[in-house]
Amino acid sequence: MPDGVESAFIRYYKELVLYLNRSLGDRQAAADVTQEAFLRLLDRKGDEHIEQPRAFLYRTAVNLSIDLHRRGRVRRTEELETLDREGCLDERCPQEAASQQQQLQLLQRALGELPEACRRAFVLRKVEGCSHVEIAQALGISRDMVEKHIVNAMKHCRLRLKAWDGQD
């Protein structure tokens, strides 16, 4: 993680989670949005210096929160039939099933490249739905380390999937 992003993470992570928790009313959603904001900071192209990293993170997080709210509102208003067609794979769409199976295999491959603690933290959070506190207890590490593992795992998987996708 670049020094500037790491120092921003240390300085602003908890503050941003608390702010988002107040507006979203969901600590886990706030943590997820905060992590995504930091990933956006990491994914920026070029070496362009950000004068106000705190402002950048807040603006990114607010925009992500708005997107999250909009998706939630749209999802609640869609008819059940539409959601059923979107959400299930069946024999009528074998290409989609094959594509998703391939993506899953690539994700498993990327996760396999991670250190054990990093992989376990990511799986416990994203697959099992455990809180950061529960993961910290299960792995015997600090909550801050759990958050760092999850951010690192997400970044690694995103980069590897992009790289492998470009090889097709």
UniProtKB/TrEMBL annotation:
Gene3D superfamilies per record: 1.10.1740.10, Winged helix-like DNA-binding domain superfamily/Winged helix DNA-binding domain
One GO biological process term: DNA-templated transcription initiation
Domain RNA polymerase sigma-70 region: 11-73
One MF annotation (Gene Ontology) recorded for this entry: DNA binding
One Pfam family linked to the record: Sigma70_r2
Keyword entries, A-Z: Sigma factor, Transcription, Transcription regulation
Annotated RNA polymerase sigma factor 70 region 4 type domain residues: 105-157
Superkingdom to which the source organism belongs: Bacteria
The keyword Transcription belongs to this UniProt entry's keyword annotation: yes
NCBIfam families per record: PRK12527.1, sigma70-ECF
Family membership: Belongs to the sigma-70 factor family. ECF subfamily.
Name this polypeptide is given: Sigma-70 family RNA polymerase sigma factor
